[in-house]
Specification:
The protein is an alpha/beta fold. It has a single domain, classed as SPOUT methyltransferase, trefoil knot domain (Alpha/beta knot, 3-Layer(aba) Sandwich), CATH 3.40.1280.10. It is 37% helix and 17% strand. The protein has a 7-stranded parallel β-sheet with strand order 3-2-1-6-4-7-5, with helices on both faces.
Length: 166
């Protein structure tokens, strides 16, 4: 008997809003493939998707990543009812990752490396803000691709725990 996947591109989405660094985006794309998630990129991008460095970071998997590219946040936001509830990751969010029960489907939203998510988005979706706990109080944030990986695998961990036999 084969097990049902913990995620599919229809029920787990990763959104990068205005990503700036090509290798982070390539790494995130590879993580999305590993986790079974769909990658979404919200323009403007700080690089070209045709850049060989993006493809190099995504290795030979990049063509399979097939990110959905959106012209702006408003265009993607209009589709959220179809995609699932958004969870916006920010170092200043009130809830930590371990106190959130991620539903199926779920949309994990991350900001740019330099600026994070725009304040207006964090304020509008404050009840869906999530932070990854960090022991060092002087550390501003984790690397974007690291943060995405931690969040993706927490969602998969929760789904696995829910699917495990008692």
């Amino acid at each position: 008997m084969t097990e049902a996947p913990l995620a599919t591109r229809d029920d787990l989405h990763v959104v990068l809003v205005r990503p700036q660094i090509h290798w982070n985006t390539g790494n995130v794309g590879r993580s999305c493939l590993a986790a079974g998630a769909q990658l979404h990129l919200v323009r403007p991008l700080g690089f070209s998707l045709e850049d060989r460095r993006v493809r190099r970071a995504g290795l030979d998997y990049w063509p399979r990543v097939a990110p959905r590219v959106w012209p702006d946040w408003e265009s993607l936001e209009a589709e959220l009812p179809e995609l699932g509830p958004p969870f916006l990751f920010s170092a200043d969010a009130a809830r930590d990752l371990w106190s959130v029960r991620f539903p199926r489907p779920a949309v994990l939203v991350f900001g740019s490396e330099a600026e994070g998510l725009p304040r207006r988005l964090r304020e509008r979706h404050a009840e869906r803000g999530v932070r990854i706990p960090m022991e060092d109080p002087e550390l501003r944030s984790l690397n974007l691709s690291t943060t995405v990986g931690v969040a993706l695998y927490e969602v998969l961990r929760q789904r696995h725990a829910g699917a495990a036999s008692p």
